[in-house]
Amino acid sequence: MKTIKMRAGGRLSLIANDPHRWIEARKRVFARHGATDLADVMQILGASATEMGHMMGVSRQAVDQWLESGVPVNRVATIGQIAQAARALRDYFRAERIPQIAREPIPGLDGRTILEVARTEPRRIVELIEQTRSYIAPGA
Question: Most distant CA pair in the chain: distance in Å?
């Protein structure tokens, strides 16, 4: 029987050329899709599973499950956009300051915090950071 090479978790595996086994192996490889972005967001923003749950409108247990099994398909894009905003913060600010920055009301976000805006308008956070980067003080 013919075999197919498949990379999973950094190692190469051989599986039989059986469509059912191939599909199952593929599901296992991609089962954690979005979990890396979610973990990055939590680490960069210093957010607990409870805070992420509030941000995403789900329970802490759901966030824990997403970290373990992967983010549901209908939430992957949102988590990806939030991760992009969090990484932009990390690229511009000192890591130890980001959790405080994420929890302070910001005038450019209509007095809301980054954590409040992240789910509904993550692109707005990136735009605000870009505006901050390109700011030139009057008379400079």
Answer: 75
